[in-house]
């Protein structure tokens, strides 16, 4: 639903402002990061490093796509990290248990394990959705609570010990495999990005998520089933997080309850920097992909410039706050029309 | 009375990038005068008062208070100079009590401690002197809009106003409350306060205005003594052309009954029964709080129904979710376009497209952008929304154009019964005429229309049949020659004399 830009839409005074209102703060942040890190390290601006960043950013981009759905619907999801951990632990446990049951069909065991992981995600997303949509609990409290519940369950299920003994095929294909020379996780992410773009800009359901986030009362009076729409947003977000959890599990070849620790913060930062409004209703898939890439790029640049991991946390938090401030300014500009 | 105006502007101008909102306006108000500002939405009234109130800074020109040139950096500066403004958007804190709101920032007491009793007494004294009946201990959120308005006015009185600016103060008041407000205004005038009064309602300010200034397109068209002019002249000055009769003739061709409501009870609605037919405009009149809006919100499933039945084409639809009622063919256009009508940050296109895909064309999973665009363009042409306004975020449009977008949204659903709740609230004359034309068209196409309105002439002129509501009940049904203003007013107060 891209609106046509009329010939006499209010005359904008300069290009930078226009870019800022349309896309948000991301192009500016990206430009600054590229310049700063290129100066700090000569290894930064190389094809090999950027390809590396691209490959590493797959996981954050995926989670950010789910986070974007929930943000656009007018909420947010702090439990994405927990879903990653829970799906990792559940799918690994089930896979390990299924291998002796189907000794001749490893892929069947893997599939059952993956389904169990997705099932756990549907439960978590569904609980979030019911809390927010039916009981109208604030998304912040709901997903914060659920994230504690999920993390506790993941630790309880494993006793804090990684689940090992996964079938080799799982890690070989989804962790390290390549198809036509392209890493499988990258292909998975590319497919998800394409599907998400189609979903958000070409389907009715996508348009309804935008409408609910923009003004939920107005959406209700436009005959939208607002509860169902919110439920779907939270469940899809959890499913994508679970997919990420599975890819990470394949990568480290074990199920771990401490996966995804900082990803809630990182995914919200990626979205907000990419112009997804915290008030809901605004945000674009292609920008969120760049937003996720940007966060990993900054982390990579800081690693190359030998910034300590503690200071990296400081910088990431600062970046998020700055992005929210710029989001506020941008929203005011939209509402004032200048 | 001295010859120096209490407040005066000279060549006052405010320019925004690409728009001149106010141009070379000379305007003055004497002490002890009620000066009305009149003009369509977007004529520059709001800009002018925001400059006088200190909420905005002039690009050029000057403001003089009592003959001295002033520059206001903030609303507080203006208040220090004795200029108090009651804006349309209230500045009250909903979770605090009336007294707390009235004395916000200047609570009586000792050091950091507030003397609540002294504050309540002072608030009570002030409200009494203004003749407002509002409990000082009540939480503002629990008050009606009219009562909130009174608190807002009382709050301005806590200082010692030399100039009082009232921006559409009667928009949400009942007739009784309006009478009260006017008495207050006249008393303040006697006390020598200069009053600037903004309103759309001509027949209203005829009662209180000394002078009228008409603005159009940011320029001052003229200032006249109220005694020297009349309604027609003022409207002509405002729109730049004569409007003979803005109410269209709608042929009455009542057909089949579509909607039957029987003995409906809900929050604020007691035992309401009515029918709506094809080819007929049914008008609902009543005071604010009479239940005229709640009746239909309950019927639409927006608030719960306690008992009674709602039948649509003979099928029972009582208590069904709103979206199913809409799918059956009833559309409700809200009276509150900002909070539950529009997605303000989105364009007119985006606002309308969501209704098109929920209403007219619900087939398939995928959107067909081109088909949507064409359908949307047709509807925007029907409601006469200019092409250049369609891609703008609706928040940037004037009230009249926002209302056109809201009407467009309702046309996105192919309903057989349209319920319009306050269809012309805060809308200029031009848009009014366009909206009445639309209502006529919808009715003539054989659909049923219900118009709920606090604007009595509107209901009486549009509707073939008028229901009057009072205290949650339908107190009268008026047809033909019974539809006269005094007849309706009599039924505004329930004969039973009960008070809620």
Task: Briefly say what this structure is.
Chain A is mostly helical and 338 residues long. Chain A has helices at residues 15-23, 26-40, 47-56, 58-72, 80-101, 106-134, 139-158, 168-175, 184-202, 204-214, 216-220, 226-252, 263-273, 285-304, 309-336; strands at 178-179, 182-183.
Secondary structure: helix percent of chain B: 25-40%
Query: In percent, how helical is the residue content of chain A?
Result: over 70%
SS content category of chain B: alpha/beta
Oligomer, anyone?
heterodimer
Name the shape of chain B in a single word: globular
> What is the helix/strand order of chain A?
HHHHHHHHEEHHHHHHH
Write down the overall mean pLDDT of chain B.
85
**Total number of β-strand segments of chain B?**
22
Keywords:
heterodimer; A: 338 residues; mainly alpha; two-stranded antiparallel sheet; 2 strands; globular; B: 500 residues; alpha/beta; six-stranded mixed beta sheet; 17 helices; 33% helix; disordered C terminus
Would you give an account of this structure?
The complex is a heterodimer of chains A (338) and B (500). Chain A is mostly helical and 338 residues long. Chain A has 15 helices and two strands. A two-stranded antiparallel sheet of chain A has the order 1-2. The longest helix of chain A has 29 residues, at 106-134. Chain A starts with 14 loop residues before the first helix and ends with a helix. Chain B is an alpha/beta fold. In chain B, 33% of the residues lie in helices and 26% in strands. Chain B has helices spanning 45-52, 75-80, 98-102, 116-130, 145-157, 175-190, 202-205, 231-239, 292-299, 322-328, 337-341, 348-358, 369-382, 399-411, 429-444, 456-462, 485-491, and strands spanning 7-16, 19-29, 34-38, 60-65, 68-70, 83-86, 109-110, 113-114, 163-167, 194-198, 211-216, 219-225, 257-266, 269-277, 281-286, 305-312, 315-316, 330-333, 417-421, 448-452, 465-470, 473-479. Chain A binds chain B through residues 1, 3-13, 202-205, 207-208, 210-211, 214-215, 217-225, 277, 279, 281-282, 331, 334-338, and chain B through 16-19, 302, 321-323, 326-327, 332, 334, 339-347, 349-350, 353-355, 357-359, 362, 364-367, 369, 372-373, 387-388, 390-393, 395-396, 409, 412-413.
């Amino acid at each position: 639903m891209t609106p046509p830009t009329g010939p006499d839409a209010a005359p904008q005074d300069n290009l930078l402002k226009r870019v800022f209102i349309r896309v948000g703060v991301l192009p500016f942040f990206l430009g600054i990061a590229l310049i700063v890190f290129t100066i700090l390290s000569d290894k930064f601006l190389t094809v090999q490093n950027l390809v590396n960043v691209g490959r590493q950013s797959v996981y954050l981009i995926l989670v950010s796509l789910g986070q974007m759905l929930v943000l656009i619907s007018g909420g947010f999801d702090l439990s994405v990290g927990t879903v990653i951990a829970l799906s990792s632990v559940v799918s690994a446990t089930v896979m390990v248990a299924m291998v002796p049951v189907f000794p001749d069909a490893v892929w069947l065991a893997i599939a059952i394990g993956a389904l169990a992981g997705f099932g756990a995600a549907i439960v978590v997303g569904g609980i979030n959705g019911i809390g927010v949509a039916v009981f109208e609990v604030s998304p912040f409290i709901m997903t914060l609570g659920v994230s504690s519940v999920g993390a506790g369950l993941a630790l309880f299920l494993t006793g804090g010990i990684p689940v090992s003994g996964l079938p080799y095929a799982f890690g070989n294909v989804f962790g390290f495999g390549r198809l036509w020379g392209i890493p499988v996780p990258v292909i998975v992410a590319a497919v998800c990005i394409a599907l998400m773009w189609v979903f958000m800009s070409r389907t009715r359901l996508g348009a309804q998520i935008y409408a609910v986030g923009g003004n939920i009362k107005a959406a209700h009076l436009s005959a939208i089933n607002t509860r169902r729409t919110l439920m779907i947003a939270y469940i899809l977000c959890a499913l994508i997080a679970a997919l990420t959890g599975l890819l990470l599990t394949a990568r480290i070849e074990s199920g771990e309850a401490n996966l995804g620790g900082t990803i809630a913060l990182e995914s919200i930062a990626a979205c907000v920097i990419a112009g997804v409004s915290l008030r809901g209703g605004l945000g674009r898939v292609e920008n969120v992909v760049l937003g996720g890439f940007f966060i990993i790029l900054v982390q990579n640049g800081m690693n190359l410039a030998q910034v300590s991991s503690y200071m990296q946390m400081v910088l990431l938090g600062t970046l998020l706050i700055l992005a929210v401030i710029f989001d506020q300014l941008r929203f005011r500009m939209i509402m004032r029309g200048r | 009375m001295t010859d120096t105006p209490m407040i005066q502007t000279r060549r006052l101008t405010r320019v925004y990038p690409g728009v001149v909102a106010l141009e070379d306006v000379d305007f003055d108000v004497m002490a002890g005068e009620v000066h009305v500002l009149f003009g369509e939405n977007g004529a520059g009234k709001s800009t002018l008062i925001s400059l006088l109130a200190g909420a905005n800074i002039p690009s050029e020109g000057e403001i003089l208070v009592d003959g001295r040139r002033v520059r206001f950096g903030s609303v507080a500066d203006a208040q220090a100079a004795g200029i108090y403004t009651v804006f349309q958007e209230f500045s009250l804190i909903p979770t605090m009590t009336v007294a707390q709101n009235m004395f916000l920032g200047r609570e009586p007491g000792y050091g950091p401690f507030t003397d609540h009793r002294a504050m309540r007494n002072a608030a009570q004294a002030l409200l009494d002197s203004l003749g407002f009946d509002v409990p000082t201990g009540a939480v503002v959120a629990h008050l009606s809009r009219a009562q909130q308005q009174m608190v807002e006015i009382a709050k301005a009185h806590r200082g010692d106003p030399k100039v009082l600016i009232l921006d559409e103060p009667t928009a949400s008041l009942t007739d009784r409350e309006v009478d009260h407000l006017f008495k207050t205004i006249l008393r303040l005038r006697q006390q020598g306060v200069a009053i600037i009064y903004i309103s759309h309602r001509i027949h209203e300010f005829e009662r209180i205005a000394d002078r009228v200034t008409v603005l159009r397109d940011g320029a001052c068209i003229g200032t006249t003594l109220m005694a020297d002019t009349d309604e027609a002249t003022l409207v002509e000055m405002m729109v730049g052309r004569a409007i003979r009769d803005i109410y269209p003739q709608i042929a009455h061709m009542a057909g089949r009954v579509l909607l039957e409501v029987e003995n409906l009870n809900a929050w604020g609605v007691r035992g309401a029964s009515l029918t709506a037919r094809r080819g007929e405009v049914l008008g609902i009149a009543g005071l604010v709080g009479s239940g005229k809006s709640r009746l239909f919100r309950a019927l639409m499933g927006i608030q719960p129904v306690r008992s009674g039945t709602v039948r649509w084409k003979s099928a029972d639809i009582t208590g069904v979710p709103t979206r199913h009622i809409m799918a059956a063919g009833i559309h409700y256009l809200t009276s509150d376009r900002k909070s539950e009508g529009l997605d303000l940050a989105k364009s007119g296109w985006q606002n309308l497209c969501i209704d098109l895909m929920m209403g007219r064309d619900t087939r398939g999973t995928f959107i067909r952008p081109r088909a949507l665009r064409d359908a949307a363009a047709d509807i925007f042409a029907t409601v006469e929304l200019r092409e250049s306004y369609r891609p703008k975020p609706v928040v940037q449009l004037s009230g009249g154009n926002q209302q056109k977008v809201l009407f467009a949204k309702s046309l996105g659903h192919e309903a057989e019964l349209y319920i319009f709740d306050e269809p012309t609230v805060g809308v200029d004359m031009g848009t009014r005429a366009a909206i009445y034309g639309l209502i006529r068209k919808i009715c003539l196409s054989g659909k049923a229309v219900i118009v709920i309105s606090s604007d009595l002439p509107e209901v009486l002129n549009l509707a073939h049949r008028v229901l009057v509501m009072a205290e949650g009940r339908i107190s009268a049904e008026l047809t033909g020659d019974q539809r006269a203003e005094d007849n309706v007013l009599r039924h505004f107060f329930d004969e039973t004399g009960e008070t809620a």
